[in-house]
């Protein structure tokens, strides 16, 4: 009995000694060092994340190592330069002077009404058209302070420096249609007429019915719903969102076939050999397409529904053209806008998509309607 008891005492003593040895041999990181290490790692992560979401500085035309300046340019009120391209008859001979405003991911070379109009129509009517690179596109300097009003003032200053007279016409395509809304809002006294071709709609414009905006928004692909949502709520993430490889980015920027209607797919062949497409984003994607999206889907201080008729005495006219099968700009909200602005001449094209201005004969119809000629 005594021997058994002594063995139990010895075994218990051995286990106790082993536990003490184990405890004494384990390493404990002081809590202060652990907290410091975690803080350093967190700060490092934040620094990495900040670098990832920051767009690179613009590669401005004419700067050391930047793209060359090949287009004629004007110098604006704030020192920026605006590049332009002239079409049609010489402006001193022209009866009608038109400023063409390009859409998203385009440039001065994408002036569809100028490119597709018959030379005979241009000559017979005496039409002069000037297209320009919007800020950050092509060879126009980026505008880090760009606002809804500033782009309208750019249009006005372009007209003044080129000597287009006290009044001129504006034609805007897609995202360029938003620029035309801004011209109607901020410089209506300078306009002889305006045409909006499938103008992009901002789902956050005040006074648009929530049920209609929800319906139209739900028709977009999930990738585009997210891209639009990011541009509106977290514009500082737009560059990262549209350049990262984890999730699909904006369909319009990647030219996904999902955004094209049946008619668009037939017309797109006319655009695939565009030799000037490299010019569009040569100064940086953020300063061109990403800033464009941010402003287009930002919180505007007004809505097109606030705009008053700029031609109360019918001395000019405003026209809005829309394809009813447009997958980029859905027709539902467009119909609501024109129903509440009865002074707009609305033209809805059955079976047409977003690229309808490129269809044969359409530009001629658009321009003749705008100018009020047959």
Automatic annotation (TrEMBL):
The keyword Membrane applies. Pfam families: Abhydrolase_6. It comes from Pisum sativum (Garden pea). Keywords: Membrane, Transmembrane, Transmembrane helix. The chain crosses the membrane at residues 32-50. Residues 101-359 form the AB hydrolase-1 domain. This is AB hydrolase-1 domain-containing protein. It comes from the Eukaryota.
